[in-house]
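Weekly sync, protein design subgroup
Attendees: M.S., D.O., the rotation student, P.L. (late)

Item 1: inverse folding check
M.S. brought a backbone from last month's batch and wanted to see whether the design step gives back something sensible before we order anything. D.O. pointed out we never logged the input encoding, so this time it goes straight into the notes. Structure tokens as presented (212 positions):
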């Protein structure tokens, strides 16, 4: 004969007791492993604070990245940037055999030419200074941009002067003047808008006729 015994059990005993023996969650030690339902009111507040802080940090990082990218584009990569125009002017100087000859000597190499901003050529920190420049708007409403920097080769040194102009209607910058001045030598013109259109400001002539 088999005896069947029954035991009274409460419904709650069928489920494991809800554990709360986890380390107390704070804003600084929460790693997200503990389920939200197991957190106390204070711990939930701590987690919410931490997540809000993390969100703000991420947003700040995104904004900083955007700001740096914008600055890099406008100051370095954009055609309107001083660095971009500086690089173009240096390339024009190195492409000119007359400029290379003045700075490096006959048969010299363009790669021996160094270009740098204001300051003494012997001081490495001065050589890394920003390129000097200024801007203005003329009576006609055109934007004018003036840049100058130093160039140096094994046998000579000089100053490159740049004058850019952009019409008031907008558009790209155009070279009005790009010239190299080396002491003891005549100016080397690499770009001269006035000469291109037959204007001689010193003599007041245009197309061979004296106008002023």
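Designed sequence read out in the meeting:
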């Amino acid at each position: 004969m088999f005896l069947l015994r029954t035991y009274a059990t409460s419904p709650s005993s069928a489920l494991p007791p809800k554990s709360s023996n986890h380390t107390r969650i704070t804003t600084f030690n929460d790693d997200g492993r503990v389920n939200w339902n197991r957190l106390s009111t204070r711990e939930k507040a701590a987690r919410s604070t931490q997540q809000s802080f993390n969100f703000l940090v991420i947003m700040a990082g995104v904004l900083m990245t955007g700001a740096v990218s914008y600055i890099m584009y406008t100051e370095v990569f954009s055609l309107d940037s001083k660095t971009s125009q500086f690089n173009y002017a240096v390339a024009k100087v190195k492409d000119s055999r007359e400029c290379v000859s003045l700075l490096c000597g006959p048969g010299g190499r363009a790669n021996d030419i160094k270009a740098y901003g204001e300051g003494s050529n012997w001081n490495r920190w001065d050589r890394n200074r920003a390129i000097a420049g200024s801007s203005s708007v003329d009576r006609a409403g055109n934007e004018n941009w003036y840049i100058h920097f130093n160039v140096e080769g094994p046998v000579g040194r000089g100053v490159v002067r740049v004058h850019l102009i952009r019409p008031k209607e907008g558009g790209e910058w155009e070279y009005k003047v790009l010239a190299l001045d080396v002491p003891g030598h005549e100016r080397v013109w690499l770009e001269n808008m006035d000469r291109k259109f037959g204007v001689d400001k010193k003599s007041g002539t245009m197309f061979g006729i004296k106008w002023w």
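Discussion: DSSP finds five helices and nine strands in the chain. Strands lie at 114-116, 132-137, 143-152, 157-166, 174-181, 188-192, 199-200, 205-206, 209-210.
Action: P.L. to compare against the previous round before Friday.
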